[in-house]
Write a structure and sequence with these properties.
One of its GO terms (molecular function) is hydrolase activity, acting on ester bonds. With about 450 residues, the protein is α/β, with parallel strands linked by helices. It has 12 helices and 11 strands. The chain has one domain (about 30-350): Alkaline Phosphatase, subunit A (3-Layer(aba) Sandwich), CATH 3.40.720.
Length: about 450
């Protein structure tokens, strides 16, 4: 029989085995660090600032896999919320991680229900097309990524938390949304904008941080492989000092600190999100905003701020793309009041039809070219996209797995650390022919329109 004394020892043993936070940047977030392996490549060139209606710089920092109620108990998050606006009705889009990251820049998660290696076709547009159309600079900063524009599946290096332990995988491709899209991964100039944290330190010191930024901590600092307390320690060491650095945060900077998804798949996907930075009005700091938002609100809010065009996808679906309220109030955008039972269930995974779902495959469709986004500009459509293949004329979903096929944009047989394959370049018409060649069709009944 197991004694009560032994049972009482278990929490202490587990606590002793839990990793303790160690900053990979012992001299602060603006100092380069040998722990990151990758040397910096000099700072980005400074670009002319394109003024926005509410902010001139937008920076988002993503943390991993934590329920709203758990995050709300963390001292770091509580203290940061006092400096900004806590979004109490913010929701992720699905599970697991990768589809949320993909959707945040592409306006859809394409039916993806896993964290596999995907290379989304080059003719699928992203927020980077919208930004560059207005000459707005951008970058993605990835902690522990070894080199700029790195495209491999993951990266493993010596374990800086425990030098006697085996090497550790601190960086993963799935948390780097730009590189998921062929329109970025096949364009060398765009790849140079996917940078590591040593580059970030140099860019901050040179006052060369772009106007749009995506920041991904490594797999322990983002709570993915640890917990909320570990992530809180990282925020105290990295984000908090930067909030008082005018090269990172000035009076025209908006910072979104958010989670990619919650941890509990059996409840709706509410996440803890805070709007920070000098662009937050003083009278709103320490307040709550109960407006319904999703990751698509990131796109619509950026579009509204700079009067951008849109992607013609879920960024133009008003139900799931409310603009952050203090921005909407300034620019005159009318949000929808989505509350209670009208809040969609977005904790579903793997059963949403799409071009990245082998069980319910449909080809990539054209965006809604007649849609109007929060920025009021035209829908961006890549020149080589088949605009006739709209969702209304798509073939019924088919089960490619049953026919021993994979989706065209999937990359199989990836060896960790192996070079990334070229991006998928098939057109929607190619994908439609593939779908038509599979005999077993599945009905898509009961799937909410906004999730297609």
């Amino acid at each position: 029989m197991i004694s009560l004394a032994f049972i009482a020892l278990i929490p202490a043993v587990l606590a002793a085995q839990a990793p303790q936070f160690v900053s990979p940047q012992p001299f602060g977030p603006t100092a380069v660090s040998p722990i990151y392996v990758g040397a910096n490549n000099g700072s980005l060139a400074k670009s002319p600032v394109v003024p926005g209606k509410v902010f001139d710089r937008f920076t988002q920092v993503w943390i991993e896999n934590t329920d709203f109620e758990v995050a709300s108990t963390s001292t770091a998050f509580i203290e940061l919320a006092k400096q900004g606006i806590l979004l109490t009705s913010s929701y992720a889009l699905t599970h697991p991680s990768e589809p949320n990251y993909a959707a945040s820049v592409g306006g859809d998660f394409w039916g993806m229900g896993d964290d596999d290696f995907y290379s989304i076709p080059s003719n699928i547009s992203t927020v980077f097309d919208l930004l560059e159309a207005k000459n707005i600079s951008w970058a993605s900063y990835q902690e522990n990524m070894p080199t700029d524009g790195f495209q491999e599946y993951n990266y493993t290096q010596p374990n800086y938390l425990n030098s006697s332990a085996p090497p550790y995988t601190y960086w993963v491709r799935k948390h780097n949304p730009p590189v998921l899209y062929g329109s970025v991964s096949t364009v060398p100039e765009r790849l140079t904008k996917i940078r590591n944290f040593n580059d970030f330190a140099v860019d901050v010191n040179a006052s060369a941080i772009p106007q749009w930024n995506f920041i991904t901590p490594n797999m322990v600092n983002d709570a993915h492989d640890t917990d909320i307390d570990f992530a809180s320690d990282w925020l105290e060491s990295w984000l908090v000092p930067l909030l008082s650095n005018p090269n990172f945060n000035d009076n025209k900077t908006l910072i979104l600190l958010t989670f990619d998804e919650n941890e509990s798949y059996d409840i709706n996907n509410r996440i803890y999100s805070i709007l920070l930075g000098g662009a937050v009005p003083e009278n709103l700091k320490g307040t709550n905003d109960s407006t319904y938002y999703t990751h698509y609100s990131i796109l619509s809010s950026v579009e509204a701020n700079w009067e951008l065009g849109s992607l013609g996808r879920q960024d133009t679906n008003k139900t799931v793309s409310n603009v952050y309220d203090f921005i909407a109030s300034t620019v005159g955008y009318k949000n929808l009041n989505v509350t209670g039972n009208d809040i969609p269930l977005t904790n579903l995974t793997g059963d949403i039809p799409g071009p990245l779902n082998a069980q319910f495959y449909v080809p990539f469709s054209a965006p809604n070219v007649n849609a109007t986004g929060a920025g009021g500009g035209p829908v961006f459509v890549a020149s080589n996209l088949n605009t006739s293949l709209t969702p209304q004329v798509q073939p019924a979903p088919v089960n490619l797995t049953a026919s021993n096929q994979t989706v065209p944009a999937a990359v199989t047989g990836i060896t960790p650390g192996a070079p990334a394959p070229p991006a998928a370049t098939h057109t929607t018409s190619d994908a439609a022919r593939l779908a038509g060649s599979v005999a077993a069709a599945f009905a898509a009944g009961g799937v909410a329109l906004f999730m297609l």
